Amino acid sequence: MKTKQPTVLAIFAHPDDADFSSAGTIAKWASEGKEIYYILATLGDKGSSDPQITSEKLAQIRLVEQKEAAKVLGVREVIFLGERDGELENSQTLREKIVKVIRQYRPEIVVTFDPTVYIRKSSWDGYDYISHSDHRVMGTAVLDAVYPSARDYLYFPSHRHEGLQPHKVSDIYLANPEKPNTWVDISLTLDLKIRALCQHRSQVGGEIGEAERLAEFRKMIERSASRAGKYKDIQFAESFRHLRIRT
After folding, report:
1. Pick the CATH number of 7-244 from 3.40.50.720, 3.40.50.10320, 3.10.105.10, 3.20.20.70
2. Helices marked H in 84-210 — which ranges?
3. Mean pLDDT throughout 220-242?
């Protein structure tokens, strides 16, 4: 009898967050038969340096870009929670939305950002950068939603009236961690990661289709994955802090 593969929820703040941090792993898991769903808090409606674009137009663009990127990787569905870019707070409202999708999709695995990282060194160019506040907030909110909120009956009792039961997540993968303990070999899915990222034209440059720009972008992604993999003698990797949840 064929063993059912785990369900994975990748829960992040913005379009492209899951793809930059974890797309190689997502593609690998999808090829193994895991059911992957993206849960994104915002539409990234402020993520542009173009003074001519509006938040409404940018949101429309990024929604389409993320759905196209998800298709490349084999993600089954992309769900947007309707929050505003740059305004995330670890509120009861946000946690309720996260708990609801956890109880709906009942994942064994959840992927999100490591909320403890405020400043880290870029694996692309070696410079320090500040982690986006939405990334930190979302990572914390996801952890709080997984434990104890999604697990316990008395959190958000209105869910039971909708037929949703508590759910225990088994594993959490924290992306872009300062202290990783798990490395996933993405050597066979790196091309899919690059193809997915190229769908985010508003973020990586509309000219990404040009051969010279694409080659430069590929080198940047390869350099990042190579630096992650060197700790375990892997050609190309993505690193995580893997947590097993005791239930």
Report:
1. 3.40.50.10320
2. 92-105, 133-144, 158-161, 190-198, 201-204
3. 95
